[in-house]
Write a structure and sequence with these properties.
Shape: globular
Number of strands: 5
Number of helices: 5
Helix content: 40-55%
Strand order of the largest sheet: 3-2-1-4-5
Mean pLDDT: 91
Strand content: 15-25%
Structural class: alpha/beta
Distance between the termini: 29 Å
Amino acid sequence: MVILGIDPGYAIVGFGVLEFYKNEFKVLGFGAITTPAEMPFEQRLKTINDDMTEIIEKYKPDCLAIEKLFFNTNQKTVIDVAQARGVTILPAVKAGIPIYEYTPLQVKNTVTGFGRAEKKQVQEMIRRTLNLKEVPKPDDTADALGLAITHGRTARSLSFVANSAERELKL
């Protein structure tokens, strides 16, 4: 299974592409889509959408894992992030790629085994899990890889549960 992990934003969109097979991860690619602050917001959205379309065409992911949007105190920021998130996932929706959402707490718990882990601890576990020489930069890229890892491990668990239930029905 090829998983595209996305950490959404409008200044930086982190992405990480992992292949998950037989309980092992293989890094296919990672990076960030960046848009300059002086660029008109509408153009930033177009850039994100265009770049995400290229990433999907290049890697042909089977699924997309994205951080679940949460509301913070700055309403303007959350609205802008929501708009960017929409244009980020639109190419996946058009391609028929299923989308899965995970909270930061779920990522921390899955990657480190501790839902209250510090950001540096999570990043180090991502580095170790993927056998990388260093933690990917910017942080948004590491976060995207954490989302992809979370989906791989979660999908494996869900598959195990579904297969177990199917076996029980046959008995």
